[in-house]
Design brief:
Blueprint: E1 14-19, H1 25-38, E2 45-48, H2 57-70, E3 75-80, H3 86-99, E4 103-107, H4 129-139, E5 144-149, H5 160-172, E6 177-180, H6 186-198, E7 205-206, E8 208-209, H7 215-225, H8 231-237, H9 244-264, E9 269-273, H10 279-287, H11 293-298
Parallel strand pairs: 1-2, 1-9, 2-3, 3-4, 4-5, 5-6, 6-7, 8-9
The structure holds flavin-adenine dinucleotide (FAD).
Flavin-adenine dinucleotide (FAD) binds near residues 50, 109 and 165.
Family: Belongs to the methylenetetrahydrofolate reductase family.
GO biological process, one term: methionine biosynthetic process
Pathway: One-carbon metabolism; tetrahydrofolate interconversion; Amino-acid biosynthesis; L-methionine biosynthesis via de novo pathway
Length: about 300
């Protein structure tokens, strides 16, 4: 399947990229190298995450601001409501609105006791992600609000049906798009999509793609996120712990195979968890038929 031709420009999928806010000067320089390399691919938007419990509030803001100031990219700011008062969250939203941000990725956030502990909403805070969505939409109706979706259900969720009900509540509150937790088995996504559509949810459910740069790390993420790591994937990376070059080649093949199959079955939007690295994402986008601005227009 990885040998099939790139989809024609007419069917060129749209893409978005996710970054995390850098902690150090060196990480910032790295991120800007990544942004400059990926920007010519003309993503629909680029998003910047919000550290657990709002720990990167200022860094997320300054990264978003720099994207606005120095690029023509459209930024989307992640925001969580865990451990924050409504007034604090509103202030963050209003500051974004003031500098020209028109897209928020609205999330509840992990429980402050860590993943696996029970979630307690802040007494003066938004009680759920749906509450947060509706607050953003009522303060700034022109703002786009993206939410999360979980093809394998959120670890705290009693069932996939309960999870889809939670997604429905977010859509009813005004969410305009959902991005999924990453998954490696496309069938999980398609089965989920069927159930979401059957529940009357019509917004785009954009697959979140995690190119596996580091298998051990990805496996850790997956365990915490409740995402399955198929045996075939583990086997592909077997014995490569000390061979970064081969790992990268394998990673590109795996992710390219995944997105091509999704595209072949009609998926038109892809969100990449870049982990602030450009090469794999650039290559996979290329395989999807995406070219830097100029040539794409010429085609
Ligand atoms: P929610 O929509 O709040 O749902 C979580 C689960 O709780 C539901 O599946 C459901 O079982 C239950 N639930 C909630 N509301 C209801 C309801 N009304 N009815 C029934 N059940 C309900 N975390 C960060 O800290 N910063 C980020 O920047 C960040 N970005 C993310 C981006 C994406 C695309 C994804 C998929 C996740 C991201 N997360 C981020 C992780 C997220 O914060 C955690 O997964 C968190 O535990 C849940 O928040 P949520 O908004 O995703 O889920």
């Amino acid at each position: 399947d990885t040998n099939s031709p790139a989809p024609s420009q007419a069917h060129r999928p749209s893409i978005s990229f996710e970054f995390f806010p850098p902690k150090t000067e060196e990480m910032e320089q790295n991120l800007w190298g990544v942004i400059n390399r990926l920007a010519p691919l003309a993503p629909d938007f680029v998003s910047v995450t919000y550290g657990a419990g709002g720990s990167t509030r200022e860094r997320t803001h300054s990264t978003i601001k720099r994207i606005l100031d120095e690029t023509r990219l459209v930024p989307a700011a992640h925001l969580t409501c865990v451990d924050a008062t409504r007034a604090d969250v509103d202030e963050v939203v209003d500051r974004y609105h003031e500098i020209g941000v028109r897209h928020i990725v609205a999330l509840r956030g992990d429980p402050s006791g860590g993943i696996g502990t029970s979630y307690q909403a802040h007494p003066q805070g938004y009680q759920s992600s749906a509450d947060l969505v509706s607050a953003i939409r009522s303060r700034h109706p022109e703002m786009e609000v993206t939410v999360s979706a979980y093809p394998e259900k959120h670890p705290e969720s009693a069932s996939l049906d309960a999870d889809i009900d939670a997604l429905k509540a977010k859509v009813d509150a005004g969410a305009t798009r959902a991005i999924t937790q990453f998954f490696f088995d496309n069938d999980l996504y398609f089965r989920y999509l069927d159930r979401v559509r059957a529940a009357g949810i019509a917004i785009p459910i954009v697959p979140g793609i995690l190119p596996v740069q580091n298998f051990k790390l990805a496996k850790n993420f997956a365990t915490r996120a409740g995402a399955t790591v198929p045996d075939w994937l583990a086997e592909k990376f077997e014995g490569l712990d000390d061979d970064a070059d081969t790992r990268r080649l394998v990673a590109a093949t795996v992710a390219a195979g995944q997105v091509q199959k999704l595209a072949k079955h009609g998926v038109e939007h892809f969100h990449f968890y870049t982990m602030n690295r450009a090469d794999l994402v650039f290559a996979i986008s290329h395989i999807l038929g995406i070219r830097p601005n100029g040539t794409q227009k010429a085609a």
